[in-house]
Amino acid sequence: MKTFIENWQDVEFESSSSTTPEFRAFATQCRAAIVKEIKPEFILEEFNRGHFEVSGFLKHTSTGKYVYFSISDVRYSKSWLNTVLVRSAEDAKDYTGGINNTCDLKYLQRTALDIVNY
């Protein structure tokens, strides 16, 4: 995760009405960094690349509980690094879920563990 953050934290994303190659690369690398970071406690059940934002569902490997996360629009501020939305979910289709929490991207796994253990 550290390398991913270092590579992308200072990038100024071009705004566009369509997904740019730069954002596609960001999303691909973000997915890979999350998969690596959350093991072995979670698996990445679902990953969605939106219009300059990404989101997904983590599934706890021992309890089967779900956690939803969302990284907001990366074009206009660096808040995507430290305001990742994280909340409990019933399944990998529950976009309304539990109480909203935020965390630094580097603490996604720890925050998700706190949520499933609450």
Give your account of this protein's structure.
By secondary structure, the chain is of the alpha+beta class. The chain has helices at 2-8, 21-38, 108-117; strands at 42-49, 54-60, 66-71, 84-89, 101-103. The protein has a 5-stranded antiparallel sheet, covered by helices on one side. It is globular, with a radius of gyration of 14 Å.
Please name the defining characteristics of this protein.
3 helices, single chain, 118 residues, 5 strands, alpha+beta, five-stranded antiparallel sheet, 25% strand
Order of helices and strands: HHEEEEEH
What's the structural domain tally?
Answer: 1
Report strand %: 25-35%
Indicate the mean pLDDT.
96
Q: What gyration radius follows from the Cα positions, in whole Å?
A: 14 Å
The largest sheet is: 5 strands, antiparallel
Helix content: 25-40%
What's the number of extended β-strand segments?
5
Report the structural category. alpha+beta
**Major sheet: arrangement of strands:** 1-2-3-4-5
Low-confidence stretches: none
- Characterize the overall form: globular
Measured distance between first and last alpha carbons: 25 Å
The number of distinct helices, counting runs of at least 4 residues, comes to 3
Question: What's the short story on this structure?
Answer:
The protein has about 120 residues and is an alpha+beta fold. It has one domain.
Layout of helices and strands:
Layout: H1 2-8, H2 21-38, E1 42-49, E2 54-60, E3 66-71, E4 84-89, E5 101-103, H3 108-117
Antiparallel strand pairs: 1-2, 2-3, 3-4, 4-5
